[in-house]
Design a protein that fits this description.
Blueprint lengths: L2 H18 L3 H5 L7 H11 L2
Helix pairs in contact: 1-3
Length: 48
């Protein structure tokens, strides 16, 4: 996944976590077009 695309997802998920008081694992499941590999990559970077 290109870094620009990953950055957009990370920022969107972090914003939703704050606004909706949900976990990143819960939110990322709604992005059905992402592969499991991409989801893992995004979650790893969020938790750094």
């Amino acid at each position: 996944m290109p870094s620009w695309k990953k950055s957009i997802f990370i920022n969107a998920i972090k914003a939703r976590m704050e606004l909706e008081s949900r976990t990143e694992e819960d939110i990322i499941q709604e992005y059905t077009k992402l592969t499991e590999e991409e989801k893992t990559e995004i979650l790893t970077d969020i938790n750094k």
